[in-house]
Amino acid sequence: MRRSSTLSRIGLHATMLVLVVWSILPFIWTFQTSIKFTRDVAAKKPVLWGYETTANAYRAFWLDEDDINMWSVLVYILVVTVICLILGQIGRRVRHSWPWFTAAVGVIFVALWRFPKVWEVNDEYDFLINSIVVTVLTMLISLSIGLLAGYGLARYTGISGAVILIVALGFRALPRTAFVLPYFFGAKEIDDWLASSGVGSWDFPLIDFPGIDTLQILDTRLAIVLALVAVNQPFTIWMFRSFFMEVPKEIEEAAMMDGATRLQAFRRVIIPMMWPAIIATGLFTMLLAYNEYLFVRVLAPTEWTLPVAIVSLTGGESSRTITEAAAASVSITLPIVVVIILFQKHLVKGLGAGAVKG
Amino acid sequence: MNRRTFWGFTIPSVIVMLALMVFPLVTTVWLGFQKLLLRDLNNPQWIGFDNYTDVLSDPEFWAAFRFTMIFVAVVTPVTMVMGLGVALLLDRVGRGRSLYMAALLLPFIVTPVVGSLVYKDLFERGGLISWLWEVITDDPFAVDASNVKWLIIIQSIWYIMPFAMITFFAGLQTLPGERVEAAAIDGANFLRNLWHVVLPHLRVLILFVGLITIMDAYRVYDQVFVWTGTRFTDAHTLSVYNVRVATAFDIGRLGKGNAIAVLNVIGIFIVLIPFLWRSYKDQIAERT
Fold it and tell me: Which of A15, A211, A243, B222 could form a disulfide with B112 if both were Cys (CB 3.0 to 4.6 A apart)?
């Protein structure tokens, strides 16, 4: 029975192919729609082969009439990348890389935050930039505080650790609606206070964002980031804890015997061993932030990210919006396909790790 | 690690969870007792349990409740059986496994609202499946109030199944080969092997996947919202109904919405408490 016959192997692969078709058929169909002319989309009998292809839908969605803007966007992204690469290179050569790393993070932060106000760009770029900002900031904040907490929870044996873990597990299960409504109400209250006390219109020299004259919470990317960091914390600390549990205590104890403080041992010895864990947890955090719909819709009525933009833009029934919506769907899915191809092993490992200790 | 160091490491995360999870949850309970309208947020009035009696006598709440229960009851077992089946198949595939895996993972990883949109397009007018349907049955196919619930369920199985599959697959990788071979030498056929060797090995994972699936199915929002929008309010689940009541333009009732949220939380906790209690016991046992 161990040795499978050719026949059963063919059967196996045939079944797998059917499953693959069931999985990706909608994506293939949408991709086809996105490169068709509207007359083919409107045809009653679907045109499956031999249709004329076009990138019109993509052009309509991403470019609009003003091409100049796209180039300034590309140049800007290029400049920021180069600065970060230089900082990273210096960081790799210098003994204490921490400040350089922080500087690179700072550059990304400022660059992303200020971006849309530097040039007037298409709405679609605003949504794209919002998506990037929200995803990157959520990952940075969520992973840094989650890493610390996960380490503490893995090494501490007191009862309060167990309580924190169980409460977090309970929060992981709650419906989003139990959080989004009070967030909305709280943000509204804070905004009202900011407006009525005049604090909101103070001039802060260091955080003087061009184009923003009043400080507020609701309808900003900050609100989305905070909400996502919070709902992601239970998952993050459980994931990191289960990874830290696999690292033997003796390793950092040896480092501490050699005179390192615990923080030094953590940073120099433990963190370098944790990269697979950080990548796996980071991937899921990234997907959570990139895919989020409900929080963005309620907390940011105009500062949409891509998922909200796509759902809102596909309201129409005309063939033209159908191709554009398809182009938008393909555009938002492409980064995810890239992630699957590059990080499949980490994704599978992350799901496994979450399960073992879940 | 001593207590002070522990709190030093944990405090940022704990502060975030206190400020943005515990405190909002308390706010939810408090708001559930208020009369509070979306267009008049500065004027909450304490009305005791009126929101709750209002919700519990609302037929739309019970419709949402019923559909949510059907949804959980269908999606959870089908997802798990399918996930296990595909994991077993995947386990037998030698060459091309990672390619299959990438394709099968896509529905689970893709943005849920986009996944729902592209899936829905197959069934809409001019879509591939709607056309095939018409060729086979001669009747035009249209998404309507009678079939949208089943389409949501099918699409959700499509969306969630890869999670069960990958988790079970990871579990199968840790199955010791000797045990399978020993069973094979004893003359166990596939089903007996599955029942006596594989399933006991995966027991913990099955519980885990089951709980996660129940939790996620219970609070489903994105798929249902995309399929129904404002067209098929009959097919709304509890979360969609909840958000609709609270944030409907101009007539949103935030107080009532929070009361529904509290009921939802109580609902999931009834399922969850035995499990949380068991995990707590495990945690305590680990520490002594």
Answer: B222
